[in-house]
Structure formats: structure tokens, C-alpha cells
Amino acid sequence: MFAVIKKQIRVQWENWMVCLIIILGGGIAGEVLFRVIRAFVAEEAKEFIPVGTVMAAALAIIFLGIIGIMSLEMYFNLEISMGCTRGRFFVSYYLNCLTVNLMGAGLVVLTAMAENQIGLWLYPDLEKSVNLLPYLLRWSVPAAIFLSVFSVLWGALGMRFGKKIYWILWGLWMLLSIGGPRIVEAVEEAPDSIFGRFGALLAAIVKVVPGSAWLTGCIVFCIVGFVAAYGMLRRQQVTA
């Protein structure tokens, strides 16, 4: 099994390194973007916003998730056709995916730590809008595990049910990307609207449900997703 894991790393390391470079680049670009904004609105800017950390975290989720999903079918067909068993492929692919996701999470944490220090150094007069570091330290590892299971599960669903699964994922992402900011805006500016009420309801649910319950739900999803993905891949035929 260890030899199979080493081969999996050797096959995929270039893709994962590109993702990590993109995450690091996003953090740097976010910090530069804040400095540019600060230069144009120096008088109005009263808060230090960790743009670099937000961009690094967003790129980590997007690129690591996409690579984990889209690479599954290609490497499954390649490695199974070369004699690797489905069980060994599944374990090695998942562990490789988990490892790089943990590395991405660690890179985001380091970005947050560096950005906090840069904020104290360059903008001591600005109020800190939010400190993301405590949340990242608490949730980055569960998020990496969740993303790994989600990527493998959704990749297996795509192999089982075809491209419509990817269109569903794209639709959900667009709904979150477009609807999310609109709901947040409506909560502040139009609390009596449908989006405002829906956002207020979501905020109330988040406040009521303790963090331990969210963690338990994440663990349950990971267990079910892990077993379901393995069950689908165990019966999956090589298609190319």
C-alpha cells in the first residue's frame, strides 16, 4: 500500500503544487489589492480588511476542490488499467487528496498570520475589521477533511451519473456566489425583504446551533461520503 501511495504522489504532485502556488499568489495579490485600495481611499479607509486571507481561502477551496473532482476519473482509468486494485487506488487517492488539502489549509493559516503582522506593521492606525486566524486554526483541518471527502465523492458521482453531476455542482456554486452576497446585503439594507428574512433566519440558525453540532454533522457527512464513494468506485468500470 505504501508503494501505491508513493506512486500516487509521484503522478499528481505537479497538479497539487500548481494549486498551492495559486493559493500563495492569491494571498499576495489580496494584500497588494488592499494596498492599492488604501492608496485611493486613504481618508475613507478606517478598517484593515484581510483581503489576502480571504482570497487565499477562496482559491484553496475552488482549485483544490476542482482538481480533486476532475482528476479522479482520469487517474482511476489510468491506474486501474495498469493493474492497481480499486481499493488501493481509492485509499491512495484519498490520502493524497487529504495531504494536499491539509497543506493548502496550512498555507491559508500562514497567510492569515503574515497578513495580521503586516496589518500591525503598515496600518497601526486602522481598526481590525475581523481576525480570521482563530477561526482558521479551529476549522481549517475539518474543512480540509470535508473538502477531501466531498471532492472524491463528487468525482465518483460524476463517473457514475455523467456530466449532469458537474452541472449541478456548477449551479450550486453560482447560486452561492450570486445569492450569498445578495442575502448579506439584504439583511443590512432590506431586512423585510425575502432575501433579508432568509438571511436573518440563516444567521439565527448559525447562532443557535453550537459549534460541536456542526462538527458532528461534518463527521457524519465524511463517514457517509467516504463509504458511498468507495462503494461506487468499487463497482466502477474503466471507461477509457
Low-confidence stretches: none
User: The biggest beta sheet, please?
Assistant: 2 strands, parallel
Distance between the termini: 25 Å
H/E element string? HEHHEHHHH
Integer average pLDDT:
81
Description:
- This protein has 240 residues and is an all-alpha fold.
- Helix content is 84%, strand content 2%.
- It contains seven helices and two strands.
- It has helices at residues 2-40, 51-81, 86-122, 133-161, 164-189, 194-208, 211-235; strands at 47-48, 127-128.
- Helix 1 (2-40) runs antiparallel to helix 2 (51-81) and helix 4 (133-161) runs parallel beside helix 7.
- The model has no long low-confidence stretch (mean pLDDT 81).
Brief account:
Helices cover 84% and strands 2% of the residues.
List keywords for this structure.
single chain; 240 residues; mainly alpha
Secondary-structure map with pairings?
Elements: H1 2-40, E1 47-48, H2 51-81, H3 86-122, E2 127-128, H4 133-161, H5 164-189, H6 194-208, H7 211-235
Parallel strand pairs: 1-2
